[in-house]
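Quick one from the shared queue. A colleague (R.T.) flagged Acyl-CoA dehydrogenase as missing a structural entry in our internal table.

Convert sequence to structure tokens.
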Amino acid sequence: MEANLERGQASGLRRGDTDPAAIAAGRALQRRLYEAGYTGITWPREYGGQGLGPEYERAFQQEARGYRLPDLGIAGGTTFGVCAMTMLAHASADFLRRHIPRILAGEELFVQFFSEPEAGSDLAGVRTRAVRSGDGWVLNGSKIWSSGAYYADWGMCLARTDWDVPKHRGLTWFAVPVTAPGVTVERIRQITGDAEFCQEFFDDVVLGDGDVIGQVNDGWTVAQTMLMFERGGGLSHGTRTTGASTGVAPDLVELARATGRLADPLTRDLIVRAHVDDVARRALLARLGERMRTDPAQALHLASYAKLVSGVHDPIRADIAMRIGGADAVNWETVGADGACADGAHGDAVSGDAVNRDERPGDSPGPKVAVGFLNSRFMSIAGGTNEMQRNSIGERVLGLPREPSFDRGKPFREVLRDARGWSSARE
């Protein structure tokens, strides 16, 4: 590491504003780690990993602290933390031999083609369809909220392959090349000024049987595994360092110091409240991790606790940071690359767009606090809303009665037909 890695923390690529040069550098560094044997430490040896136990992964992470490891943006996190882990659990040996070594080497980044404009919380209601054509498949439809798809190489796509069975049964996962003929990727501008999310359109995209992940029409089983990893139910991702911060909410202490409010009693109370929440959150996640390791059959549903704690905790913490930051959290000046004040905007409020335009914030903590506040509801929606997590916990962990369902057991084709005339006044 001393001879091949730079000292310092990860570059922290802006979500939705990923520089192609930075991603290329991240891929090259990922390749060097792969060739040195430091990626996929716990992944199967036959697919390019090292086949070692988690204690080796923990040792690497400990030694790697203080070095800059590959930063592949949001698509990198999805690739290693969700998609590859799901593939390893369900894909064929031939599929894994084709893709996993290339993932470990940084040559392939995968994103999720999961949600649709008309299938968000009801993920089993997807309408993107794959139809048999000779020895392959033809894909048509649309996906949305695919983080980082604009610079990824592949997408894991959930499509309907049988319309005459209940909605959870006729689903199949496919690996779709992002640059394949018929695939169109459009970026979605967000409230922060970033454009991390994408929508994809599939027009007669030709796929082969070798692109199927798992079994045809058994895609919901694969989806359950993906949701577990997406909600924090997985083990180490193999390429990133982890570890809880030390001290009392150090980011908020630094924010209070930078804004001259560290001695303020109210500010100190807010910092301690956040610290208590941080400690409780880490303790809960540690307990959940142990429970999931000892009860793998319940891992998906236990992961809903981890997802829910982020959905509840993140907005509270972002609000605390905003209250500590005060006016400095919403008002700052931008500085050009030469250090001069950009556009004469001394003290003017700056949107995310301004930060994206070859300008950078000055020393004010405002940009980080403001973007954090705008993004704070992310985990209460993405990957399943707080309400969906509570349903899962209530029904699958606590054993409470299931909510009524009007489409249980019906062929999905009939569900769509009946929905056209359904209203709250009809049974």
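The chain is about 40% helix and 15% strand.
The chain has three domains: 20-109, 112-230, 250-397.
Added to the table.
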